[in-house]
Amino acid sequence: MGALRFFLIIFAVWLGCGPAMAERRVALVIGNSAYKSVPRLANPANDATLVGGMFKKAGFDAVDIKLDLNASEMRKALREFGGRTRDADVAVVYYAGHGIELDGVNYLIPTDATLETDSDVLDETIALDRALFAVEPAKQLRLIILDACRDNPFAKTMKRTIAARAIGRGLAKVEPTSPNTMIAYAAKAGSTASDGDSKNSPFAAALVERLPTPGLDLGKAFRFVRDDVLKTTGNKQEPFVYGSLGGDDVALVPAKPVASGPQANPDSEIRRDYELALQLGTREGWTAFLNRFPSGFYTDLAKGQLNKIAAEDARTAAADKARQAEDERTRLAAERAKKAEQDKAAAAARAAEDARLAAEKAKQAEEAKAAAAEQRRKDAEAAVAKAQADKQAAAEKVLADKIANDKAAAELAAKQAAEKAQRDSEQKVAAVAPTQTSPSLSPQETAKLVQSELRRVGCLTGASDGDWNASAQRSLTLFNKHAGTKFDIKLASFDALDAIKSKQGRVCPLVCDRGFRADGDACVKITCRAGYRVNDENECEKVQDKKPVATREDAKPRNDERKKGEAAPAKPQATGQMYCNSAGCRPVRPGCRLEILNGQAGYSRAGGGTGNFEVCN
Question: pLDDT tens digits for 63-112?
């Protein structure tokens, strides 16, 4: 009665706390390993068991796991499954075993197929279309998963009745005609899949890892499966999916509802059941708990409690045996049994006592293990509670920080908007205020202010000296030209001053002399690299090398110099002649010469006779 009451309590808790499924989901899982005509496959039966367990844990309403089916059994299983899909929203068929492609059509091979000829395929196998027909009535999702792309031994021994008949390697590509229908291959069309080196194939292991993820769209889940299988097989096997779904996400396992308040511990239901079984403390209670929860942390604790009960039962049995042996020894002694029988009974009593002591020690050890496991459970629950509290506190802190940051950002934005409005107001006032400049300024002071503003906007290069000269008038002319104004240039007016002040930046363009260029508000000299010079367009251009030109020397200066020398009087010079008279002889004076009379020399003309005489120019 206690066990029955426990089961009823567990069932009521499950009905009250379990999530209500809004849709009905059914699955058919077939694994064919024990083929009669070809060697046995190692993994399909294991893969079917693994995948079927995954569907059960995922909360499917009905999961049929069929192993090693012949042709008639496969047809019956598909027929019965087709009847269950009529009121289902999601229908899934998983097949692991041999498959074959004949003339572009895919077939699933039962365990009793022989396939001696290619024509036997039509009689001894099940067409893939039969599985599609079975899932057709489902309302939301129709899914076929084929782990049947293995290297097919039937194709190697099969006789061809028509030489041109095509028997492909692996399975052929398919395109479902019904909407919301997907067909997943363990390997893409025309390639084969591997059984792997472990208990399960890489494809089945990836399916169990990815498909049960709550809320994960099937398309993305199968892309994860593809990546996992490629990684496991070293890029030798690539799963492929044919068909398509709509725009909304379709998950094999619906997403868990998001709680608005603090989330409850996901193991709270298991913990309640564990504490109830702990209060009962019976073998039946722990057995029922293990049947419902075959794995997990609390399952290990329950196994420890069951071992504790088994140790207690063993100790009790050993104590009973020891007591019976002692009673037997006493009886034999009382009946004056033979010494050998008494010795045998005494030995049995000692052995029973030793067994009792061993059982007592085993019980104590199991009690210690159970106590340690219970302590670990309490510690784990405390850690989970603390982690959830920390997570909730962190979430609240993040929310508070976000609210504070949003408030600070709003205040900063309001402050910046107020400052901008104030600046705009000041600029408007500044634009109007110049008209209120005191008219008491003298003409020279007014001219100086206008010149200063003209220098600021780049229209005046001279000094702001208050002299309204021609240079200042030219600068106001430039301002009128570039600012579009028409102020009288003959005088410096307050209207012109207000207009110039209203300009924030340069108005007149910067004009630089030849050899200089504008750089901001200043002219800088243009520097050309070696071999270049500044041309008339104020740009650097290469200097052209001049070729030497042969010219004749002008002879005119030289002739003039010669004629000038010829026309000049000869310089006096000594002739070496001697002039003699009655007074004596002396050299002829410079610039003079001797003339001879009557061919006789030595006498002067002054003597009145013949001879030579000195003639000076």
Answer: 999 999 999 999 999 999 999 999 999 999 999 999 988 888 999 999 99
Give the tens place of pLDDT for each residue, 190-228.
Answer: 788 777 777 889 999 999 999 988 888 888 999 999 999
DSSP label of 546: P
- pLDDT tens figures, 121-145: 899 999 999 999 999 999 989 999 9
- b/e burial code for range 117-126 (CB count within 10 A of at least 16 → b): ebbbbeebbb
Q: Name every residue whose Cβ is closer than 8 Å to that of residue 327 and which is 6 or more positions away in sequence.
A: none
What's the rounded Cα separation, in Å, for the pair 53 and 63?
Answer: 9
596 and 571 in contact (C-beta within 8 Å)?
Answer: no
Distance CA 233, CA 588 (A): 139
- Rounded to whole angstroms, the Cα distance separating 310 from 308 reads 5
Contacting residues for 251 by C-beta, under 8 A, at least 6 apart? 213, 214, 215, 216, 217, 218, 221
Tell me, letter by letter, the H, E, C secondary structure of 315-361. Answer: HHHHHHHHHHHHHHHHHHHHCCCCHHHHHHHHHHHHHHHHHHHHHHH
**What's phi and psi for 275, nearest 5 deg?**
-65, -35
Tokens at residue 587, please? 């050299």
Q: What angle do CA 520, 523, 524 make, to 5 degrees?
A: 105
Compute and round to an integer the Cα radius of gyration of the chain.
61
Q: How far is CA 216 from the centre of its chain?
A: 21
Cα dihedral across residues 396, 397, 399, 400: positive or negative? positive
Structure tokens at 316: 């009790």
Which of 117, 110, 122, 114 is closest to 30 using CA atoms? 110
Query: d(Cα 562, Cα 564) in Å, to the nearest integer?
Result: 5
Q: What is the pTM of this model?
A: 0.42
* Structure token digits, residue 406: 């949003």
Whether the Cβ atoms of residue 533 and residue 540 lie closer than 8 Å to each other: yes
